[in-house]
User: Fold Cytidyltransferase-like domain-containing protein from Flemingia macrophylla.
Amino acid sequence: MTENCIVNVVGAIHSSRYQAVVHLAGGASQVVGLLLSVPGASNTVLEVVVPYSKMSLIQLLGKIPSQFCSQQTAEDMASLAYNRALKLSKPGSPVVGVGFTGSLASSRSKLGEHRFYMSTRTADQLWISRVTLTKGLRTREEEDRVSSYLLIKAIANACKVSATSVSVLSESEVSDECETQFNEDQQLEQLINGQICFKIYPFANEIPAERKIIMPGSFNPLHDGHIKLMEVAIRICGDGYPCFEISAINADKPPLSVSQIKARVKQFEKVGKTVIISNQPYFYKKAELFPGSAFVIGADTAVRLIDPKYYDGDYNKMLKILVGCKETGCTFLVGGRNVDGAFKVLDDIDVPEELKDMFVSIPAEQFRMDISSTEIRKRSGCK
Assistant:
């Protein structure tokens, strides 16, 4: 096993479209240097977190694990890394979350096995491996190198990169692996249950960009007004990755079913537009999920957004929450809509001074559409 072989594998990882967040505890420390020292690391590496102390790992997991070095802990680390990667990645880029926890040789003799667990999570797959090393065969540095090389191989496999040349275990050492595939229905169930934070359907052939231009809504149904409003928003923003967003979880209604979500997604596939399915109905949570994004909304939504009624009647609470949205770098592009029977634009809304620079008007001469999805459903006899 040569260093050049590993460098070539890492180079292939960086040439893939995948972006990754890596969580490491108890070993595989050389993975960081291997990933970052090969040109192209910025294409792949979004974040590396090393929760080395027990308290650090507890805070990362949000719980005390039954065992710190275990299959479940590695799986939990990978799942958290996957959700973090979704938030940090360029829109449209596939992501992988990586978890590693090990109990390797140390300065004092260990009664238990020298072992480690690795896990990778992608949109449609969860992979887990347990490796038990022969005690006394290697130094700590050598065990760390073995675990690092095998974790690079695992990352490569998750990124659909060949890494068959990576072989560092002795004949008596084996790795026990298990893999679970998730179909679309299972992924959507995971989203509804809060296991993953969103799922993206990149139907548009758009070049990934740092900033998202997001139009949230129920899109029941999607209509020309939505598409035209997005086109205007793109022109105003200048650049960005346009996508529509549906929350499977509603603030005051039951969650959408998997079949309902898939039916609405089908609309976007037909017109070749990217759609994100999230589980966050509130804008302050959307801002945390999609920091730095430009949200495209109607004047009716803007009115509700700054109405203290929706913040337990507390003006200061409203202000604090929306200032928090502002601090994530998010902005709101506001198109004209009918509000209480009258057509209104942003200038007709009394936006608090502290929030004014977060709102951008879409001029009525550039976009005006008075019909809504609700009215379309009524006209077609649907509820």
Summary: The longest strand covers residues 95-103.
